[in-house]
Design goal:
The chain has nine helices and eight strands. It has about 280 residues and is an alpha/beta fold. The radius of gyration is 17 Å and the shape is globular.
Length: about 280
């Protein structure tokens, strides 16, 4: 593994690079930490150059200045990582909030993607009016305003299937706790207002797969993946396990990512003009 810091507009991003082969950028969800994917990156490093990073304002990256972080900034950061570490183009995997960043990247900077895998984006605004899940972001914002980051974090965890049934790596857990206030103050507004640009995603010049875990059926963070796939005419895939299966059983989750990433890589290669 090689790691370091990459300068972007207004921040320096911690990154780690493993393996060799086609570039695979992995974008973390809430807490924005490269450590979410350490184990699966090691499993995939025999077939891909796996790039992980701490999103701006999180963990070992800088950029926490007390102001709201926009999805445009997050997408620009991801583009800079691809340009700086992957030669300008990469397959992108994002889970949860990282999937929202990936969908934004696909719209704003499609030239840097060879394909996108969006796992369980909590894009609740695509759900029907009146769906109880549409109140998720305002509810957590209210809990944070009343009880602070710890109260909001506990409420968040209680709403995610499987959390509390396995142990996080100690260093990752410590960093995540330090990121909670940044999540609920700086990142929450942009995530709460996210709506995918369906027209741009339908016309993307690379393959897109949406997906969700087999144990997450019916949840607010799984159902939007099906709706987005339907609206943009994208492929949909079922992943093993729960929302953070890449922590609970990384070997099983990595096997699923390997199949999809390989498929999308060859689909992307086939779509590139030869002359």
């Amino acid at each position: 593994m090689a790691d370091g810091m990459l300068a972007v507009a207004g921040a320096r991003l911690y990154y780690a690079v493993r393996g060799a082969g086609p570039a695979l950028l992995m974008v973390g969800g809430a807490g924005g930490d490269a450590g979410y994917y350490t184990a699966i990156a090691e499993d995939l490093a025999d077939a891909f150059t796996v790039i992980t990073y701490d999103r701006r304002g999180n963990s070992r990256s800088t950029g926490r200045d007390g102001t709201a972080t926009t999805l445009a900034e997050q997408a620009a950061d991801a583009r800079a990582v691809v340009e700086g570490l992957a030669g300008g183009r990469a397959l992108v995997f994002g889970s949860s909030a990282g999937a929202i960043v990936g969908l934004t990247l696909a719209v704003r900077h499609p030239e840097v993607l060879t394909g996108l895998i969006a796992h369980e984006p909590p894009a609740v605004n695509v759900l029907p009016d009146g769906d109880p899940a549409r109140g998720f972001f305002p509810e957590l914002a209210a809990v944070h305003a009343e009880g602070g980051a710890s109260a909001a974090g506990r409420r968040f965890a209680h709403g995610v299937r499987g959390e509390g049934t396995y142990r996080w790596p100690d260093d990752l857990w410590k960093r995540f706790l330090g990121n909670q206030d940044h999540l609920f103050t700086a990142e929450w507004p942009a995530l709460a207002s996210f709506l995918p640009d369906e027209e741009a995603l339908r016309s993307a010049p690379f393959p897109i797969v949406l997906g969700a875990g087999s144990e997450d059926r019916g949840t607010y963070y799984a159902r939007p993946s099906i709706e987005i796939a339907r609206r943009i005419g994208a492929q949909w895939a079922e992943f093993p396990g729960i929302h953070m299966e890449y922590l609970r059983d990384p070997t099983r989750f990595a096997a699923a990512v390997r199949v999809l990433a390989t498929l999308l890589h060859w689909q992307g290669e086939a779509s590139v003009p030869t002359s």
